[in-house]
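Summary of Year 1 activities. Much of the first year was spent building the evaluation harness for sequence design. The harness presents a backbone, in tokenized form, and records the residue chosen at every position. We chose the following record to illustrate the format because it has been used consistently in internal testing since the harness was completed.
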């Protein structure tokens, strides 16, 4: 079973209110059709609205966010760390209850980024790193893939 970023499944939950283009992901369509995929949006599960201001990790890594040593801040300067951590924990609980052991997540997201996230300065500069949900899944032994690896 796979836990999958809900936007990759065609659900309109991205920060700007758009949906991912599921047509780009035949593997995800196949997993959904087979009942082998559970879509989640950690940001929405954490109580953030759709649409919402873009957010980035500042002051450290996603692992630091989970330890309370870094923050997730939106472009307006509001601290949304609690939403990201709570949403990641709820999404992990859903994944565990569904028997998921693998994930396919949206790259560069502050929640779901797998190999790359934005640098926290809102300048569209990408740096190596995980999103909060991806880091939590990895810490729990999940195999985590990026949509860009499909």
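For this record, the design step produced the sequence shown next.
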């Amino acid at each position: 079973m796979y836990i999958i970023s809900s936007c990759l499944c065609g659900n309109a939950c991205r920060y700007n209110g758009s949906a991912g283009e599921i047509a780009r992901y035949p593997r995800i369509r196949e997993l959904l059709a087979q009942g082998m995929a559970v879509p989640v949006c950690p940001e929405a599960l954490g109580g953030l609205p759709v649409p919402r201001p873009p957010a980035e990790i500042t002051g450290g890594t996603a692992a630091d966010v989970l330890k309370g040593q870094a923050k997730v801040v939106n472009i307006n300067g509001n601290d949304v760390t609690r939403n990201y951590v709570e949403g990641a924990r709820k999404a992990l609980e859903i994944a565990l209850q569904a028997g998921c052991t693998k994930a396919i997540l949206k790259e560069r997201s502050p929640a779901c980024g797998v190999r790359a996230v934005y640098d926290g300065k809102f300048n569209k500069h990408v740096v190596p790193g995980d999103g909060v949900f991806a880091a939590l899944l990895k810490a729990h032994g999940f195999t985590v893939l990026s949509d860009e690896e499909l």
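Helices lie at 26-33, 42-45, 62-66, 81-97, 132-139. Quantitative recovery figures across the full test set are reported in Table 2.
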